[in-house]
Amino acid sequence: MDEQFMKHGFFSWCELMTTDVEGAQAFYSELFGWNLAEKAMGMDYTLVKADGKAIGGVMAMPEEAKGMPPAWGAYVTVDDVDRVAGDAARLGGKVLVPPRDIPEVGRFCVIQDPQGAVISAITYRFCSQ
């Protein structure tokens, strides 16, 4: 298992939420030479691969994010998502998406720091069992 999926504090995943999945897929695969593969997750999701290694994903803008511009998001591996969400709020940040499960992947939350920057924290299921 790659270290970034197991160690607290490591950046582990990048994900694009977009209003034009097909356009984004064409753009980024041509620009960076990424390979794309559909992933069954109970929703349409495309894995982004570089040199055969999954490094991120592309998905349609979820309903709760409608009105937001398309954006790349970063995930940081943490030991306990619920604790991190609580700590973020205690330290003056905001919890934009409370901790929730991603079936077969893990548990994540989205936080905003006191300056307004947004980042996601995740505990991978396959690393916490």
Describe what you observe in this structure.
The structure is a single chain. This protein has 129 residues and is an alpha+beta fold. The protein has a single domain (3-128), classed as Roll (2,3-Dihydroxybiphenyl 1,2-Dioxygenase, domain 1), CATH 3.10.180. It has 3 helices and 8 strands; from the N terminus they run βαββββαβββα. It has helices spanning 21-32, 81-90, 125-128; strands at residues 11-18, 35-38, 46-50, 53-60, 71-77, 94-102, 106-112, 118-124. An 8-stranded mixed sheet has the order 2-3-4-1-5-8-7-6. Strand 3 (46-50) and strand 4 (53-60) form a beta hairpin. The longest helix is centred in the first third of the chain and has 12 residues, at 21-32.
Helix/strand layout:
Elements: E1 11-18, H1 21-32, E2 35-38, E3 46-50, E4 53-60, E5 71-77, H2 81-90, E6 94-102, E7 106-112, E8 118-124, H3 125-128
Parallel strand pairs: 1-4, 5-8
Antiparallel strand pairs: 1-5, 2-3, 3-4, 6-7, 7-8
Short note summarizing the structure:
With 129 residues, the protein is α+β, with helices and mostly antiparallel strands.
